[in-house]
Recover the amino acids of this structure.
């Protein structure tokens, strides 16, 4: 039996899920998934800078940057954003501008600037506008980006500027003890950031998200449907619909002799759990209706 790797399996499973449920999937979402999947399929080994940009463009085109349209899409966007930050940290190290002696001499200070990006951790704003010597250990821990979601920058400043503005030059100690701002993850620190780490995390996150997509897309509308029911009969119909839907989904992810793998089994187990839950729900409402009939 030929084995296809889990990544391809997940993509195919997600596609089959979505194509089996046109009524529950908005066109917009379906198109986006196809495109994300195309990107994933073409880049199974490593994600290049171009790939990251492509994912960014897809999310931006969907307007996710300003208005995430749901839990799953928000997660896709967050996942992308996280890796975009790591990738920028790696690029920062590659450029190595801060290590160049002539630049350090010309600009002995750097001013921290936070633009409060959408996923920016709140602590970053506390550093906005502060000035540090270029050799202060502060930059060992807070050279932006220094955490998931960080879109901060640092502006090189000349000695004459610092004098003219009569700035208070701050230190790492001040940041730790007075502002109470701690370090970010080690992988962002200068010299520790790597494009390979960013790539690995993006691959893992997107695989997880692709695996969860069908569940998220189906689960919410079914739950809403049930919530909207006013009578036992309506609840009965909604429960039957849910059981039929999850049964169809389970059929669509049954191994067909070509696909295999741990992720496929995890996915099927999750669908089975959903189906069990809805079977119980259906049995419960059927019992109640039978009871009502006897009471009359
Ligand atoms: Zn930041």
């Amino acid at each position: 039996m030929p084995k296809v790797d889990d990544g391809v399996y997940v993509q195919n499973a997600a596609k089959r899920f979505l194509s089996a449920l046109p009524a529950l999937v908005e066109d917009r979402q379906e198109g986006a998934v196809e495109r994300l999947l195309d990107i994933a399929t073409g880049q199974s080994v490593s994600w290049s800078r171009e790939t990251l940009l492509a994912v960014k463009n897809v999310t931006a085109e969907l307007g996710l940057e300003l208005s995430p349209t749901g839990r799953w899409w928000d997660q896709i966007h967050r996942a992308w954003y996280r890796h975009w930050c790591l990738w920028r940290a790696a690029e920062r190290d590659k450029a190595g501008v801060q290590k160049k002696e002539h630049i350090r001499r010309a600009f002995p200070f750097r001013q921290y600037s936070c633009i409060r990006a959408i996923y920016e951790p709140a602590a970053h704003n506390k550093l906005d506008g502060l000035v540090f010597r270029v050799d202060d250990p502060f930059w060992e821990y807070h050279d932006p980006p220094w955490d998931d979601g960080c879109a901060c920058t640092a502006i090189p400043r000349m000695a004459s500027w610092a004098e003219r503005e009569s700035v208070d030059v701050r230190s790492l100690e001040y940041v730790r003890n007075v502002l109470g701002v701690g370090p970010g993850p080690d992988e962002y620190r200068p010299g520790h950031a790597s494009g390979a780490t960013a790539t690995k995390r993006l691959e893992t996150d997107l695989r997880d998200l692709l695996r969860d997509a069908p569940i998220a897309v189906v689960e919410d509308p079914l739950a809403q449907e049930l919530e909207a029911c006013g009578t036992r009969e309506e609840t009965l119909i909604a429960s039957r619909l849910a059981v039929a839907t999850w049964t169809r989904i389970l059929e669509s992810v049954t191994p067909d002799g070509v696909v295999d793998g741990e992720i496929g089994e995890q996915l099927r187990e999750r669908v089975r759990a959903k189906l069990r839950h809805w079977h119980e729900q259906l049995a419960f409402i059927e019992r109640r209706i039978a009871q009502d009939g006897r009471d009359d």
Observations:
- The two ends are 59 Å apart (CA to CA).
